[in-house]
């Protein structure tokens, strides 16, 4: 147990790491904010004070004497389940090179502002540098307690001067001298810091729902801000827009905080907008929610686009199960690399970008072409749920699965959106069993596996037309779309290569302007992710968009949402046909066991295509539905006294007959 927890302390899962910088105009309060972070995370036991010259990060004599930051200092601490590596960067213009040097290695940043000053000259400079390095950011409006502090003014200046979209995730309770707490716009809670007698270190605060009776004006302000936030995020994120327009279009009030939080995260990572929080570091208010926001909204190193930097701790030459450590290796050899944190199977490692570029030049190719071919990952055909023995071990299980996935790209892990359960998708029974076993042996978690289920597909039986209109005023814009479309069966039989292909889309002459085609195609693709009958992906359909009328102010997101809803209607009308995976089966069996194997195959809805002779053996080439292959290896072994071997691979998807489809529906509903 100890070793396991130690491992997660020394080596936290990459999804729980935040490498962030803290940047600002001089004197906005970076160092004070950092000190508070260190204190609340338990890293320091006393509150350092810039004005007294005893902070942790300003350790140069000159820094302590002048109360300013010159060199970037890095500190590491843990906040809740997250490892935060934080770099305090200098705010003074003279040290911008130092800032630039830090930004190159950061994944996210907190920009600290003096709420009485808004955006200042140096903030603009660092903001541009962060833009250049494509770094997602959070804004912290500090000094809310100060004379002249104004939340509205500071937000307005962020909007105007930084030309960015602020997402108001908090509202201050009180301003200047009366500043005492925050409203969390996402969760609709109020957070009030308690001034306990004696120690006023801000460790104790109360979080509870903000009710209308508490403060009718503030409550109204919260409602307005939250609705505006939801509309703003919906405009920037398609997935969220669909949720808002669908389930919650009547009342944003019911929209769960976690859905909003997830969408804010996506928008932040895409750098389409910037979350804004506020507080007073000096008065010890607002820093804990800021830390929560760092964990919630800034990216893990693995979520940053582009090439990743890896450090390998050792290089080993394998001799079966023994290894010899070697200092270096030249091209053309095979070795084991130890300590890679982000690389997954299929990646190409180079010693440096420059080396890769030079090698590409020598080979007369573009640097991108130097990549080794990735691995082709077949579509998983089986899935099942996996549960840890207790909720406390869910985190360990998630870590284990993410490690295993890096090694094995054919393992896919999803979260069931309805039940919240972890779902494993794999290539077969044995594949999933081995994963189960490895999680037990290598990670010490004895998980519970749900029944193995087959990844079916859905397609349409008939041709159907539908029309739909979406008319909604969000913010100041009226979004109005009307679409008319038709779906038809594409190909009755789908080969494995076609399994993952999108629907074939046609636009009636003049129906859809070129600039809207992408939005329409997105809407169609989204509607095919979950079919209307059992929620399996829809494939093998043709779609014709017959007409599209769009009001000039309408966002592309709304166009996609309307098309998607219309598609769902048309799919339902057209009638759904379930498709099942059909496998190519090759059995090698001795002559005397051939008839037993064939008789068994007939019972499994198998169809024999060919029987070849290979020395003393016979090779049966057949096709059999995946659903009939459960436990096949055991049965075949006993039928043939262990003499037969077989291989299975996905051939295509084929339609279930109506009797089988009815039985499947009953089974599925019985399970629910
Ligand atoms: N009123 C008020 N003053 C603050 C607050 N936070 C910091 N200060 C004061 O502002 C001054 C600057 O704070 P620092 O934390 O050194 O600011 P900095 O951004 O790190 O400054 P440089 O390192 O020089 O860039 C100090 O006198 C702090 O006491 C706050 O929340 N409210």
UniProtKB/TrEMBL annotation:
Q: Which domain of life is it from?
A: Eukaryota
Under catalytic activity, the entry for this protein gives: GTP + H2O = GDP + phosphate + H(+)
PANTHER family named in the record: RIBOSOME-RELEASING FACTOR 2, MITOCHONDRIAL (PTHR43261:SF1), TRANSLATION ELONGATION FACTOR G-RELATED (PTHR43261)
State the encoding gene: GFM2
Classification via InterPro entries: EFG_II (IPR041095), EFG_III (IPR009022), EFG_III/V (IPR035647), EFG_V (IPR035649), EFG_V-like (IPR000640), G_TR_CS (IPR031157), P-loop_NTPase (IPR027417), Ribosomal_Su5_D2-typ_SF (IPR020568)
List each copy of the Tr-type G domain by range.
15-302
Q: Which GO terms describe its cellular component?
A: mitochondrial matrix
Q: Which NCBIfam families match?
A: small_GTP (TIGR00231)
Provide the alphabetized UniProt keywords: GTP-binding, Mitochondrion, Nucleotide-binding, Protein biosynthesis
Q: Which PROSITE patterns match?
A: G_TR_1, G_TR_2
The name of this protein is Elongation factor G2
Quote one Gene Ontology molecular function term: GTP binding
Per the UniProt record, one Pfam family is EFG_C
Annotated SMART domains: EFG_C, EFG_IV
Note the CDD domains from the entry: EF-G, EFG_III, EFG_mtEFG_C, mtEFG2_like_IV
Gene Ontology BP, a term = ribosome disassembly
